[in-house]
Amino acid sequence: MPLSEGHHSIGSPRVRTGLGIAAAIAIVAALDPRAFLSFLVRAAPAALPEYAGSGIPQYTPLTGSLALSIGPWLLAAAALVVLVVRFSGRLRAAWEPTPQAAGESLVAGENGGSAIEFLLLLPIILSILLLILETALMVQAKFVVNYAAFCAVRSAIVWIPADAPGGEARNHIDRTDPSSDKMQKIWRAAAFACVSISPHYTPSIVDRTGISDASDDQKDAVDRIAAFFPSDGDGNVADSFKNRLAYGFDSANTTIEIVAESGSHDQNAGDYGDHDPVTIRVTHRFYMGIPLANRLMGTSFGAGPGSGFYYPISEQYTLLNEGEPLGS
Questions:
Q1: What is the DSSP letter of 63?
Q2: Cα gap 254→195, rounded to integer Å
Q3: Weakest-pLDDT range from 185-189, 306-310, 318-322, 324-328
């Protein structure tokens, strides 16, 4: 059928209109990609009782900040996939023998050249595939660390308004002291969420990362949680979780930072008002276990000749501080 007769031909008004809209959206996204992504994916407002009728803020899996965080990695993964497709085509052409016309003799060395090209392309394709796999794992880890930031800030908006046993007054936190009572509670909430992407505690992991085993108190806490998981006799989710505690609860592998926001009080000094925004940034050293990719993308733990590699993943989340109901 001629192009002019096609129902969806390029010359039809509908197609031209669609292309024009797509071009306009692409121009807007290129001029200000952050504002464009924030417009598409927005964080839900905190579900305070006076706003939404619920006392528990709900986690929004995909916020604008997370979209901006994973966007470059998704683009990198797409670019690597394109490279794999292109190299795979070359590899297939090098592997398949070139058809010869009748009576035509094969040029000397042609088969040898194809074999050399195949041997050169194969490790490149395998390396790119390893990079794609590691990138996919890191994108998954970003979602988990983002949830860890939500858990941390959810803990923060509960404990900041409280009177801590360590002497921290109501609506005050020693944000520069990681050992303060409130900071420890917030940190534990973040570390607990990061355990799911932590490696198992094994002798090889100890040699590669230099971590020590989890404390008895931490394991006892998991034992109390184990009652919520059915056991099959050979171990359950809680056993696997307990085996990952050591890495996630290592103070060097999971860290938190309270980001000062503009509010009714001086947050740089650790002072907050009721319903002030509270932002927590969580940084987790994601263990990279994919060979080659970990050396290209990661940072060494510095634990000796057989040291492993990690990539620091940082995500943050904002909720409103709890307090007296508005208008009271």
A1: -
A2: 10
A3: 324-328
The span from the CA of 215 to the CA of 161, in Å, is: 29
Cα dihedral across residues 31, 33, 38, 39: positive or negative: positive
| pTM (predicted TM-score) | 0.74
Q: How far apart are CA 177 and CA 189, in angstroms?
A: 17
Strand order in the sheet with 277-288: 254-259, 277-288, 309-320, 299-300
Whether pLDDT at 65 is above 60: yes
Burial string for 186-214 (b: 16+ CB within 10 Å, else e) reads bbbbbbbbbbebbbebeeebeebbebeeb
Which among 287, 73, 58 is positioned nearest to 150, based on CA atoms? 58
Residue 6: pLDDT band (50, 70, 90) is: very low
Q: Which residues contact 4 (CB under 8 A, 6 or more apart)?
A: 11
Enclosing H/E stretch for 288: strand 277-288
Residue-wise pLDDT for 74-91, tens only, equals 888 888 888 888 877 777
